[in-house]
């Protein structure tokens, strides 16, 4: 199968690419970083260097693909995370429609059911495709860059508690590095599927 993997060489995309290449699939990996070109090729995949903010680039890359794994990388520079997530999801949805992709796996947010302003899942509901939406658990490796802050004051957990669970949770001691499973699911991910008739 011809499969497009977004997310460059991240926590999911790199091992996914390795697995799919080992199974004999033709894999194209989308990355915004030209420096990743050689590393993608070294995995046996074809690099597609461009931005998920570019619908024309996505549409051209998705053409003739049997399946697309679509994820939106977290941005620490966007002033409004929810707006950024919705824009990128709309770009994906538009490109997937134009390319008439038959099979799509979307990586949603780990708290999409709890934070409606960051839930991008409904944007994909109108696709005429076989669709799987997954919600991952959090990757602690994403916090390596803040390890000194975490060790010194435990601030990351307190900020996330305040953001996602509110002041009362913070004041009553419900803190930690991540609040991803507090009041939610445990395990690696939750999924929902929608299979639409092919057109």
| End-to-end Cα distance | 19 Å
Number of strands: 7
- Can you count the helices? 6
How much of the sequence lies in strands comes to: 15-25%
Task: Describe the protein's architecture and organization.
The chain is of the alpha/beta class and 199 residues long. 34% of the residues lie in helices and 19% in strands. α3 crosses α4 (81-99). It has a seven-stranded mixed sheet with strand order 3-2-1-4-5-6-7. The model is unreliable at 177-191 and 195-199 (pLDDT under 50). The chain has two domains: 2-140 and 185-195, 3-Layer(aba) Sandwich (Rossmann fold), CATH 3.40.50.720; 141-179, no CATH class.
Itemize the secondary structure elements and their pairings.
Layout: E1 2-5, H1 13-22, E2 26-31, H2 37-42, E3 46-49, H3 55-62, E4 67-71, H4 81-99, E5 103-107, E6 130-136, H5 147-153, H6 155-171, E7 189-195
Parallel strand pairs: 1-2, 1-4, 2-3, 4-5, 5-6
Antiparallel strand pairs: 6-7
Helix pairs in contact: 3-4
Give a concise summary.
It contains six helices and seven strands. With 199 residues, the protein is α/β, with parallel strands linked by helices.
List keywords for this structure.
199 residues; alpha/beta; Rossmann fold; 2 domains; seven-stranded mixed sheet; 19% strand; globular; disordered C terminus
